[in-house]
Amino acid sequence: MSDKLDLMADGKRQMELCNACRYCEGYCAVWRAIEWRREFSDRDMTYLANLCHDCRDCYYACPFIPPHDFGIHPPKVFAGLREETYRKYAWPGKWAKALGERVSGFWATFVFSILFILGFMFVNGGVEGMLQPHTGENAFYAVFPQNLMISVFTLLGLWMVAGWGIGASRYWKDIRSGKSIKEKVLFKDIKTATLYAASLKYLDGEGAGCTYPSEEPAKSRRLFHHLVGYGFLLDLASTTLAAFYEHILHDPAPYPLLHPVVILGSVGGIMLIIGLIGLLYLKSKSDKDVNDEKAVKTGSAFSVALLIVAITGMVLLALRETAIMQVLLAIHLGSVAALFFTAPYSKFSHFVYRYLSLVNYAQEERVANEREAIKHAKLVKKAVAATSGISAKQ
């Protein structure tokens, strides 16, 4: 607890100094957001931490980074506070520490995969049954009964969505509760935030890219993030389309290679693999002086867990008509189950808090712009009136 309090207090100190300096004004949403504040509460710091995209431009531009006495280091402070976010707002809260800090995505995948392998062995008559090839229509369901598969992953999906939903509700209520401006969020704010999120605007560096993993601007991190994000969405679309074929058109899996379900899933899987390997590589090369060690570990654990899901899915697709299909299916389903089960407590949840932060920022930005427009209109009106008065006297 003391470490958390020290981190929060030091973060406030740094933001007050940054607000006085404003050398980084205009770098990203964070620096405009601090200009609208004179003091920083705990909820402000949590909001700013999740608004930060860890582009690190501010760190490399700042003349007051360590070993300067001011010790300005926003990327490290914000990374630490983001880690606290995943614990603070998680549901059920008692599970957050165990699942968020002590159980990595790799170990959760290992445990769930073993459970699925043992379950398949029980259903299919031991090791020999596990090595029997299953091909053709309903091949997967011959190994794992359809109703059981639906039940297991429906429960896990509800667990994941409930965890994210309750965490999002708690976070939103917290960052909004101290606002002096009680204006409602409008649809245009949500639209703006969605565009910011979909384009990864704050990893663009105004065209040059962000200073990650080193001081030299590069576009690779934004590209890899796009591959991961949109690759995941393509896989989600593939799964949704498969459910449509299965339950509406009564056309069960597995599907041929040129089927829309397989094409979407394959393209999405390849994008995920390239993007995740790229992000892990950049993380391994990132400046150790800027990193928060704990954040690096949890971020890498999530990336590895998602990478296992993508790789096992692609391998299963390639070898689905061989004798090791059941083993591969067990490992793949185990990795998916682990991802769902740990999602509310892992780095997987960061997109929830970041998107809500962008919505909050879009509303603050709109209000600030409207006020500036009104102020400008008044000044113009005043100037016109003064000019008219001078003209009348002449």
UniProtKB/TrEMBL annotation:
<feature type="transmembrane region" description="Helical">
    <location>
        <begin position="325"/>
        <end position="345"/>
    </location>
</feature>
<dbReference type="InterPro" id="IPR036197">
    <property type="entry name" value="NarG-like_sf"/>
</dbReference>
<dbReference type="GO" id="GO:0046872">
    <property type="term" value="F:metal ion binding"/>
</dbReference>
<keyword id="KW-0408">Iron</keyword>
<feature type="transmembrane region" description="Helical">
    <location>
        <begin position="301"/>
        <end position="319"/>
    </location>
</feature>
<keyword id="KW-0472">Membrane</keyword>
<feature type="transmembrane region" description="Helical">
    <location>
        <begin position="227"/>
        <end position="245"/>
    </location>
</feature>
<keyword id="KW-0812">Transmembrane</keyword>
<feature type="transmembrane region" description="Helical">
    <location>
        <begin position="257"/>
        <end position="281"/>
    </location>
</feature>
<keyword id="KW-0479">Metal-binding</keyword>
<dbReference type="GO" id="GO:0051536">
    <property type="term" value="F:iron-sulfur cluster binding"/>
</dbReference>
<protein>
    <submittedName>
        <fullName>Tricarballylate utilization 4Fe-4S protein TcuB</fullName>
    </submittedName>
</protein>
<keyword id="KW-0411">Iron-sulfur</keyword>
<feature type="transmembrane region" description="Helical">
    <location>
        <begin position="106"/>
        <end position="127"/>
    </location>
</feature>
<dbReference type="InterPro" id="IPR017900">
    <property type="entry name" value="4Fe4S_Fe_S_CS"/>
</dbReference>
<dbReference type="InterPro" id="IPR012830">
    <property type="entry name" value="Citrate_utilization_prot_B"/>
</dbReference>
<keyword id="KW-1133">Transmembrane helix</keyword>
<feature type="transmembrane region" description="Helical">
    <location>
        <begin position="147"/>
        <end position="172"/>
    </location>
</feature>
